[in-house]
Design a protein that fits this description.
The chain has 319 residues and is an all-alpha fold. It contains 14 helices and 2 strands. Strands 1-2 form a two-stranded antiparallel sheet. The radius of gyration is 22 Å and the shape is globular.
């Protein structure tokens, strides 16, 4: 009898250990290799990312293919970029940055490598390093003809919408905004807007952040007519629907209730739409509501989202 109890106890312990090693639940999984926690702007440790089984399998398969191409020709700039990008999609940001850095040792004037490394410094909350990389990328890309940037995570129509120049200025402006340097961010978003009129997706993304930078910097004169002159309900938006809805809300075309259902939103929707509403609350002087919504955002697990990082930054400044 005692042996049977001991045996059942051992089996239960083995199952618990196996469950802990295999993932955190039956529906979410961590990559087989993941990095130490990323420190948030609030000083807390951000956990490793989790994925559903299908997404994780796809990301790891794409990483395997990118690594194979890289191993076959490690000196090719695009092979370096794609290996770094595939690592980053799995949350392996430090590894991605290492790959981009190795690429920059070979191509020190590559604005593309600097653009991607700068993006991932934002993911790691190293905003100072992100700013340096992206400003240098903008300088190196000055006067270079713009081009569409291939998507690593394609939209519903598999149609790339962003461009190299718009991505450089977008992430550079974001690094300034997250540091609370709103006047400089207005100027950078304005420059980003020059490259973002290629399609309505990029236009909505640039206008969204430019609107908030203007509001935070006090450049609010004529802001609603300015916005209404550029935003329409029938815009050709494929992927940035959330930014589009928020802009329509800021312009007074739709109501707040049309933007997001905060009770049922996914972590990504809450980070994006939630921050858009919370930032609007803050700009309207409703600080209590803004802070409460931002705290809900950072209670989720999708911390790479720009809305999540912006909520962190706003809350950190209020400390």
């Amino acid at each position: 009898m005692r042996q049977a109890v001991l045996m059942s106890t051992c089996v239960a312990l083995i199952m618990i250990v196996a469950a802990c090693r295999s993932g955190t639940s039956s529906t979410t999984h961590r990559p087989r290799q993941y990095e130490p926690p990323v420190p948030s702007l609030l000083g807390t440790a951000l956990p490793p990312l989790e994925f559903d089984a299908e997404t994780l399998a796809r990301y790891e398969s794409e990483l395997k293919a990118a690594r194979k191409r890289y191993d076959e020709n490690p000196g090719d700039e695009m092979n370096i970029i794609w290996l770094g990008r595939r690592l980053a999609y799995l949350g392996r940001y430090r590894e991605a940055i290492m790959i981009f850095s190795e690429g920059l040792a070979l191509y020190p004037d590559s604005y593309r490598l600097l653009r991607h490394r700068g993006h991932r410094y934002i993911s790691l909350r190293r905003l100072d390093l992100a700013e340096q990389d992206l400003l240098r990328a903008a300088s190196l890309a000055e006067g270079v003809p713009d081009e569409l940037e291939p998507d690593g995570l394609p939209n519903a129509t598999n149609t790339p919408r962003s461009t190299t120049q718009s991505n450089i200025w977008y992430h550079y402006a974001l690094s300034l905004y997250l540091q609370g340097r709103f006047d400089e961010a207005v100027d950078a978003w304005t420059r980003c807007l020059e490259f973002s009129r290629v399609n309505d997706d990029m236009l909505c993304a640039a206008l969204y952040w430019l609107y908030h930078a203007r509001m935070r910097s006090g450049r609010v004169g004529g802001i609603r007519p300015w916005l209404r002159a550029q935003v329409r309900e029938d815009m050709d938006v494929i992927e940035n629907h959330t930014y589009h809805r928020l802009l329509l809300f800021y312009a007074g075309i739709i109501e707040e209730r049309d933007v997001i259902d905060t009770e049922n939103a996914s972590p990504l929707d809450l980070a994006t739409s939630g921050y858009g509403v919370a930032a609007w609350y803050l700009e309207q002087g409703h600080e209590e509501e803004a802070v409460a919504l931002m705290r809900r955002i950072i209670a989720t697990k999708y911390w790479p989202a720009f809305g999540y990082i912006a909520a962190e930054a706003d809350l950190a400044r209020r400390r």
